[in-house]
Amino acid sequence: MVYLDNNATTPVDPMVCEKMSQFLKTHFGNPSSLYPIGREVKEIITESREVIAKALGAKRSEIVFTGSGTEADNFAIRGVMDALPDKDEFVTSSIEHPAIIETANYLEKKGKKVSYVPVDPSGTVNLDFLKNAITSRTAIVSIMHANNEIGTIQPIEEIVRIAKKKGILVHTDAVQSFGKINILVNKLGVDLLSISAHKLYGPKGIGALYVRKGTPIQPLICGGHQERLMRAGTENTAGIVGFGEAVRLLLERGDKDKKVVSRLAERLKKGIEEKIHNVKFNGHETNRIKGTINYSFFGLEAEAILLSLATKDIYVSTGSACSEDSEEASHVLSAIGLRPEVARSSVRMSLGRFNTEEDVDVVLSELPEIVEKLRAISGLNPDDF
Ligand SMILES: *Cc1c(COP(=O)(O)O)cnc(C)c1O
Prior knowledge:
Helix content: 40-55%
Strand order of the largest sheet: 2-8-7-6-5-3-4
Radius of gyration: 21 Å
CATH topology of the largest domain: Aspartate Aminotransferase, domain 2
Largest sheet: 7 strands, mixed
Low-confidence stretches: none
Number of domains: 2
Number of strands: 12
Strand content: 5-15%
Order of helices and strands: EHHEHEHEHEHEHEEHHEEHEHHEH
Bound molecules: pyridoxal-5'-phosphate
CATH class of the largest domain: Alpha Beta
CATH superfamily of the largest domain: Type I PLP-dependent aspartate aminotransferase-like (Major domain)
Number of helices: 13
CATH architecture of the largest domain: 3-Layer(aba) Sandwich
Distance between the termini: 33 Å
Mean pLDDT: 96
């Protein structure tokens, strides 16, 4: 199998599996219980929180575990809007993950004003538009760190400078960048930042929100006293253990994964451009998470390419996993200016820790033939696009 869909989810690292299964076999206590088997689990959770805080350059008390990256995004935006009832405006971008876009739609239904900052053809947000969109009624600005479909990295430090001049809070969805770019919350300057374990070789169903000390925020989920009253519900203890181990591995491996992924992706990119005509690279050439490569194959439907590759045991994506069942073109590719038929011809390949040179060889030997065959069937002239 050649798995090139690491932006949708990553395989769980064997070390993470081992750590989680050992934990599940030996610890069932409720971390809120006062007797030893509960206290032990509470301590183990604290260790995970410590590792994650350390990786982000944050304090342990600033990390709130959530049920997913999606929940962290919802919590950040709705939590701050709820805490600042006098402010009724939200500023975000036109290329956010559905977790933010749908939260924005929800806010609009509730009568709030949402501004969507447009992006240029590389997928980078327009800072002049952003400047004008922020008003004294803005509660929070949320711009993603790295885009999941095209990989473009946003100038978060610059965005923070603009927002801070007006005293406005900033959130960034770093689900796709954490583990691929070194992130220090104080360097970025953000007040809130979302991450998720299953995008960095940890388990699914566990995320976290970094909340800078002093940030006004209301909980999304009410109940018990877990997570310093910020997120009620008995903790996903095994998930938290796996998340902590996944982040510990990131720190231990340093730049190893980044180097390998970037070299493999570069070779794949060069190979595609050499062997296949009438393709268009989408995203920023240099300022992007290097393992994400997105190409439009003029004249084709991406789904046909995806399914043909799947018969060869090669797995790619047509964009965000969440929109795979939709006929509509990706909102990200539309936002960078692709016409619907070009957007619908676009395939995302996202590499990760477990990919090899051989994987790239396999794709470069199968893909050109698939594209050629499908183009012959479609009868469209790719030169017309
Ligand atoms: C995957 C992803 C999410 C959602 O995280 P889940 O843990 O799957 O809910 C949010 N934002 C971005 C950019 C993502 O890539």
